[in-house]
Structure prediction request, 287 residues.
Amino acid sequence: MAFLECNDVIKLYVEEQSKLQVPALRGIELTANEGELIAIIGPSGSGKSTLLNLIGGIDRPSTGDIILEDDVITKMKDRQLTLYRRHKVGFLYQLPERNLVWNLTAVKNVTLPMKLAGRWSHEQQKQRAQQLLKDVGLERRLNHKPSQLSGGEAQRTGIAVALANDPTIVLADEPTGELDSVTTFKIIEYFKLLNKQHGKTFIVVTHDNRFAKMTDKALRILDGRIVGLHRAVDPTETSSEREEVIFVDEQGTLRIPEDILRQGGIQNHVKIKIQDGVATIVPVRDD
Ligand SMILES: Nc1ncnc2c1ncn2[C@@H]1O[C@H](COP(=O)(O)OP(=O)(O)OP(=O)(O)O)[C@@H](O)[C@H]1O
Ligand SMILES: [Mg+2]
Prediction:
């Protein structure tokens, strides 16, 4: 069994006014190994936050199961789910205001979740907080309050907060949405570093296609479904050659993310050439 599994996860919301059902997730199949850094990339409304909230135990799917280690989190009672969220999951959101308490210093922000979980002695909490802030390169900012930090520093403090209770998995929802390119790149480098150093599984959801090239594995989400995968052609090779794998569903449907359509020059038609049992897709230019 994989470390994390989502089996045919469906989430329907009921819109309050119209009472109509909105399908946010339409059958998510996903597996992750321990210690993997996975980006899930998709446009606005594709279901990224919904999926992350289900994996993090903030909400429950309509049907389907989510299993982390041996815990079937979708079958947990509310009380168990609260403990799961507190001890096993670290969250990082787009806005620093959501990750940090504004009138507390960086160190106090990182010790806060440890205090709530009551896991370590006062002295250990302080030491852990200092070490975590050092791990994200903020050893000189320990006593700064969020308003005295740059956007990137505030997000790095948020990463230290997410790791405070030694979670099994870290879930980040659009963590670089507010940041410029250079700072975004730096945050991704920290994810990679901490992912290796702490052996934590990181799942980052984003609309930012640059994550595809910068992470080992990037899943494509579109319209509530995982539709493809961006990865190194041969992970054992040092070559930087990358490929997109697009999944075909039972009806034979391919859903191709917009940026791949653009990159591949695909407009309204493609030609499928079949030769010796091998199919090749060739864009047909409409002009
Ligand atoms: N509480 C809710 N009630 C009704 N519909 C919802 C609710 N939350 C999300 N949705 C709908 O579910 C779909 C997926 O939403 P979700 O927030 O997961 O997308 P997203 O990929 O995170 O988008 P964004 O990039 O804009 O954050 C959207 O169509 C959205 O309108
Ligand atoms: Mg979202």
The domain at 4-254 is CATH 3.40.50.300 (Rossmann fold). The mean pLDDT is 92.
